[in-house]
Specification:
608 residues, alpha/beta, Alpha-D-Glucose-1,6-Bisphosphate, Chain A, domain 3, TATA-Binding Protein, 3 domains, 7-stranded antiparallel β-sheet, 24% strand, globular, disordered N terminus, binds 6-O-phosphono-alpha-D-glucopyranose, binds zinc ion, metal-binding, UTP:glucose-1-phosphate uridylyltransferase activity
Length: 608
């Protein structure tokens, strides 16, 4: 074998060179396949679609073509591959390796067993050092919380060297390439890699003219190591977890976070094994939606004494003090206290108000800015105003936060942007990585609870009391989201077009006890690079600060999902159920959208 590095800069025409053996490139003839436009978070389709013919191959080849146009140094830097462990993860990895090598990639890191959560992959891409050399990007094999299995969903997305999802510039280019693709370049004879064993495989061309190196790496440890620098594990352990009156449960929902949760809660924080439930990653997530919300995380909500509308219900005597869950690929989170559900929007606001409890922010001179997606409630805005934090309102999709985090220009005198971000869709995180991070959110809450409970001997300050105290200071943004899943796409699109056209006439209209101060279509100009994202949802901003927002989901696997977001601010009344508060807004929303007429639906499929 040849010394590594020697051929890394070679520009040999691999197709022409003779005797290449495993590195011989075949141009496999293909044709464009419709519908390969990446959505909010990558390309997601039924698994059946992905396994058929060259569906995956086309997308991966189109990505490499885009990377070449964008000037990525694929020959001299490393490609990372991992996934959420769903059905087809392992096979897809082998296909990607063969295409990557044919496209000139010479070093690949694959997470052991193909298992790596989305935030962990972000951490691995960003890791720099003698072992983890520079990565140019990663393929993440995940459809997030969508069910997995041969009859369910599969997905792929590409993240860039900053560790974050590819920006629209790149995904547009990828999509364009999928529409013109003629051939997939593949090293068909490249051996399958045993991804169950850590280690390095070097594969050389028979004639010695080139070599590729595939490393199977630990997908768990780098993330846990990073989190240990963001939080004070010792303090959490000593102050909070050692209290006999504090108990917790973490539900991995049979997704990717099980092994992370064991490494974190059991090995690093010393909690009993029973803390982690559904902690073995399964190819089909046990047949469930691995989505941490009140509808799907039923094991957890039952244990925590909360029903599917968030109300407290009868439960066993030993309801834990703290409950949390993550989704299939580990980037989402749900936070619960004893018989108490924390909405993601409130979670973000509480973390913003208590950010000094998180050493990562404190060490950087304190949090400077917060960001939320447009449909996320304005609870965090109130914190930002009071604590003098900059506030960014972005379109739905974590990628918009990444650009802010990477900016060195947003804040004078600071060459980074310490940022706390969150979305109503159960995503929370910071600039420690460039994805939302489920375990980060759990640790952030543990850190806040640790700080709140630092007086020895005092009664336990609970999740519920922290949130209620927050409302007492800031008021409460009652908030919920209705999803109408699997509706006809054409009809849903027509409905959005109708509301778009009606924005001028709706502005100023009074319906019932509400006046629409502004009806508009949300658009975003990125403050860092000036890129424009149009058509990001229809807003009805009421004169009293309440909001109705309509969007079409960008992550629906098939058909369309209409999302209706409802928000009402109450400065003094905190003890109502959200459904009592937003009732009239729902009626107005249905009237403005003619939703029933367009979609035929009476009721939402999911309420969160
Ligand atoms: C993914 C993205 C989030 C987004 C969520 C819902 O989790 O990473 O950024 O908020 O999907 O997106 P959707 O377009 O379906 O509302
Ligand atoms: Zn996810």
């Amino acid at each position: 074998t040849l010394p590594p590095g020697v051929y890394e800069n070679a520009t040999v025409d691999l197709t022409a060179a003779p005797g290449l053996g495993p590195l011989k490139v075949t141009k496999v003839k293909t044709a464009p396949i419709d519908g390969q436009k990446p959505g909010t978070s990558g390309l997601r389709k039924k698994t059946k679609v992905f396994v058929e013919g060259l569906y995956l191959h086309n997308f991966v080849q189109a990505t490499f073509a885009a990377l070449k146009t964008a000037g990525s140094d694929v020959a001299n830097e490393t490609l990372v591959i991992g996934g959420d462990g769903r059905y087809y993860n392992d096979k897809a990895i082998q296909i990607i390796v063969k295409i990557a090598v044919a496209n000139g990639v010479r070093r690949i890191w694959i997470a052991k067993d193909g298992i790596a959560s989305t935030p962990a992959l972000s951490a691995i891409i960003r890791e720099r050092g003698p072992v983890w050399q520079k990565a140019f990007g990663a393929f993440l094999l995940t459809a997030s919380h969508n069910p997995g299995g041969p009859d369910e969903d599969f997905g792929i997305k590409y993240n860039c060297e900053n560790g974050g999802p590819a920006p629209e510039k790149l995904t547009d280019l990828i999509y364009k390439n999928t529409q013109t693709i003629q051939a997939v370049e593949m090293c068909e004879a490249f051996p399958d890699v045993d991804i169950s064993v850590l280690g390095e495989t070097k594969v050389a061309a028979t004639d010695g003219s080139a070599m590729a190196c595939v490393q199977v790496v630990d997908g768990i440890k780098p993330h846990i190591d990073l989190l240990s620098t963001v939080f004070d594990f010792d303090a959490i352990k000593k102050t909070l977890l050692s209290r006999p009156d504090f108990t917790m449960v973490f539900d991995a929902m049979s997704g990717v976070t099980g092994p992370y949760a064991k490494a974190l809660f059991v090995d690093a924080l010393g909690l009993p094994e029973s803390t982690c439930v559904n902690a073995t990653p399964l190819e089909d997530f046990g047949g469930h939606h691995a989505d941490p919300n009140l509808t799907y995380a039923v094991d957890l909500t039952k244990k925590m004494g909360v029903d599917r509308t968030g109300r407290a219900v009868e439960a066993a005597d030993d309801v834990p003090s703290f409950g949390a869950a993550s989704d299939g690929d580990g980037d989402r989170n749900m936070i619960l206290g004893t018989k108490f559900f924390v909405t993601p929007s409130d979670s973000l606001a509480v973390l913003a108000a208590n950010s000094d409890a998180i050493p990562f922010f404190k060490a950087q001179g304190g949090l400077k800015a917060v960001a939320r997606s447009m449909p996320t409630s304005g609870a965090v805005d109130l914190v930002a105003a009071k604590l003098n934090l900059s506030l960014f309102e972005t379109p739905t999709g974590w990628k918009y936060f990444g650009n802010l985090m990477d900016s060195k220009a947003l804040f004078k005198g600071v060459d980074y942007t310490p940022l706390l971000c969150g979305e109503e869709s159960f995503g929370t995180g910071s600039d420690h990585v460039r994805e939302k991070d489920g375990l980060w959110a759990v640790l952030a809450w543990l850190a806040v609870l640790t700080e709140a409970n630092k007086t020895p001997g005092a009664p336990l300050v609970t999740v519920e009391s922290i949130v209620k105290q927050h409302w007492a200071i800031y008021g409460r943004n009652y908030y919920c989201r209705y999803d109408y899943e699997g509706v006809d796409k054409a009809r849903a699109t027509e409905m959005m077009a109708m509301m778009t056209a009606a924005t001028p006439e709706n502005t100023g209209k009074t319906i019932g006890s509400y006046t629409i101060a502004t009806a508009d279509v949300f658009g975003y100009v990125d403050p860092v690079d000036g890129s424009v994202s149009k058509n990001q949802g229809i807003r009805f901003l009421m004169a009293d600060g309440s909001r109705i927002v309509f969007r079409l989901s960008g992550t629906a696997g098939s058909g369309a999902t209409v999302r209706l977001y409802l928000e009402k601010y109450e400065p003094t009344v905190f003890d109502k159920h959200v459904s009592e508060v937003v009732g009239e807004l729902v009626d107005i929303a249905l009237q403005l959208s003619k939703l029933k007429e367009y979609t035929g639906r009476d009721e939402p499929t999911v309420i969160t």
